[in-house]
């Protein structure tokens, strides 16, 4: 395998290799296009969120957040993420162990199935659970007779969130663990470690940053999911409204400050996610280079 | 060694000293079946139960066809725009040095991290007739929010990282010697880019396009605020599913979803083909 080819900036090198870069004006034009495009599509929407949230001052912002329904939406979002992220974390570990450490028939097909939720519209991800558990379904009357609430209640919201965030951890871990191979685990086992010890002391430390990376992305999506949750939640204010759904309700009531205040919390979560992600990429990237080295 | 493998013939898995295969694969399959496969096959079963005639009557309903056309059409335009600008962004991020490059690079992932509903209300406010960008555009006679153009804007936002993140690693891997060789053989920079570099980037660009397109077709949260949601004009297919559900018209919701799902899986299949083709050629 070739060495990781990491290009570092070297002004002298650039000066000597004018043949393999664009002319100065061409570079300026390309950079201008890229920056204007990113400013219009990424920076401005973000600025709008905070601008609108604080449009009537800090006090109005805080008052609109300190509202019973808003607080219960925040609580529900945290609960849903706290259940669905660990579930997909355990699945991600199990699936990547089976796929990366073993050779078996149908592996490529299984990997494709894991990515399936990414190509399903969020609305359909919610719809499938409505069809499964709704009053019109085969299970519906049974659930009703036994007083089990899945739709328009927390379990349905959790299920829809789990569906949508299903691949996140697994798809980070599978390539990473495949890259690392099985040498470390075989060494540990031959030295007398048990399976659990091998996983805990050898595999887990090797994949911890990749794991954290996957969990981070999974969590951002779990807290921000709108379409799937919207279909199963029933939009009961103060009960089954997550933060993104609450944003919609406030916005449709023309409560711009309230909607953008809640939105600003979610935007803050997105920014924290991006910062942590960048930090992890710097460390995680180095880690991958290290594992490639030996 | 080779004797042992040839003797055994077909086997489900290669022998390994590592434990836990049964446990991890068993758990993964059970979880996958419960969370993904059973609910999805429920959808397939329910749409099959509709019967051929009913299914096509709903699927070919005028409003449904328009909704599908709007979803696929706007996603196609947005993905095409993202291919052009996303590739430029990726090129600038890899090849040029400028202060704050790492911050710009991190910002590209904003659409992945920002909840779609937040993006939706922010873009709507921005492009509304009295918004920061909507007002000057309105003066030029261009209506963005509450029109199909608004849907395209939302889908450009949603799809951008797919193109950049697919193309970027391929640009990073380009061997500079190839460009030097082209230059020494007398190619102009423009020729080098169009004749030498572009063919190598094409598979990644196509994959990025397909990913952005697939995501755009199913997108709901960021679109419904800005679209205006006029039936037959700016009503996307996922919204029509939600509307049918709210009318308790499960048959229609199921049929539309089945059509969308079939088209998405077709795209997934094409994406996989493209990826294995580009891996084979450039991996």
UniProtKB/TrEMBL annotation, chain A:
Gene3D superfamilies: MetI-like. It is a multi-pass membrane protein. Keywords: Membrane, Sulfate transport, Transmembrane, Transmembrane helix, Transport. Its main location: membrane. Residues 74-275 form the ABC transmembrane type-1 domain. The chain crosses the membrane at residues 29-54, 74-100, 112-135, 147-170, 256-276. It is found in: Cell membrane. PROSITE patterns: ABC_TM1. SUPFAM superfamilies: MetI-like (SSF161098). The complex is composed of two ATP-binding proteins (CysA), two transmembrane proteins (CysT and CysW) and a solute-binding protein (CysP). Part of the ABC transporter complex CysAWTP (TC 3.A.1.6.1) involved in sulfate/thiosulfate import. Probably responsible for the translocation of the substrate across the membrane. This is Sulfate ABC transporter permease subunit CysW. It comes from Ollibium composti. The lineage of its organism: Bacteria, Pseudomonadati, Pseudomonadota, Alphaproteobacteria, Hyphomicrobiales.
TrEMBL record, chain B:
It is a multi-pass membrane protein. The gene is cysT. It is found in: Cell membrane. Its main location: membrane. Belongs to the binding-protein-dependent transport system permease family. CysTW subfamily. Pfam families: BPD_transp_1 (PF00528). Part of the ABC transporter complex CysAWTP (TC 3.A.1.6.1) involved in sulfate/thiosulfate import. Probably responsible for the translocation of the substrate across the membrane. Part of the ABC transporter complex (TC 3.A.1.6.1) involved in sulfate/thiosulfate import. This is Sulfate transport system permease protein CysT. SUPFAM superfamilies: MetI-like. The keyword S-adenosyl-L-methionine does not apply. Residues 68-271 form the ABC transmembrane type-1 domain. Keywords: Membrane, Sulfate transport, Transmembrane, Transmembrane helix, Transport. The chain crosses the membrane at residues 21-45, 70-94, 106-128, 140-164, 196-214, 250-274. The complex is composed of two ATP-binding proteins (CysA), two transmembrane proteins (CysT and CysW) and a solute-binding protein (CysP).
